[in-house]
Amino acid sequence: MPFVFAPVALNMAPAQMGQPKTPYTVKIGYAYLSDKSSRDATSTSGYSVGLSYNLGKLAKDAPGTFAVDLDFTKHSGNGNKLENWALMGVYRAPFASQLYYGVGLGLSNTLVSQGVGTTSAFLTREVQGSGGGGGVGAGSISERKTVFGGVILVGSKVSENGSLELYYRFQSSVSGVNANVLGLTYGVHF
User: Fold this and answer.
1) For the whole prediction, is pTM greater than 0.85?
2) Per residue in 96-142, pLDDT tens?
């Protein structure tokens, strides 16, 4: 996790709540699965990367801005994998000097994969192996599904071109697996 905070130390100029110079933000950070059974089947720690495109204010007098965010999170371990691509429209608005909140809706595309030889019942249905044995752990399976989802976040401008965001991204389960994520990202506006 130190890689998340290293750019912050290098970019500590006084923060301004103004618009970034360009509408692009690149984000990198830490992702934590909120569901215990999903963490047990994969791993507690995952990573998050993303790109945000700020479209600006939706209305002249609106306090905040609207952006399109594309985010990716990955957790893997114990022979299992959980990957998520989220495309969200996100409204961000200031509520204090350097702080802002955000809410968004969009689509999440989730891959749930149970590996060959795994004994955890990661997926809610049996994995059918090749060659007859059947049952959980006899083969491998991957399920990919796109569902509606949302995000809520709080953030802080930490420099003229940098921000930290704490977010919770939620969606419906995919093949019985909960892919909701609590994450922390550092974004660089360029």
Assistant:
1) no
2) 989 999 999 999 999 999 876 555 556 654 444 443 344 444 457 88
CA distance 133 to 41: 22
Nearest to 50 by CA among 20, 19, 23, 85: 85
Residues in the chain: 190
The domain ranges of the chain are: 2-108+149-189
Residue pLDDT, tens place only, 72-87: 999 999 889 999 999 9
Half-sphere exposure (Cβ direction) of 18: Cα atoms closer than 13 Å: 8
Q: Which CATH architecture has domain 2-108+149-189?
A: Beta Barrel (2.40)
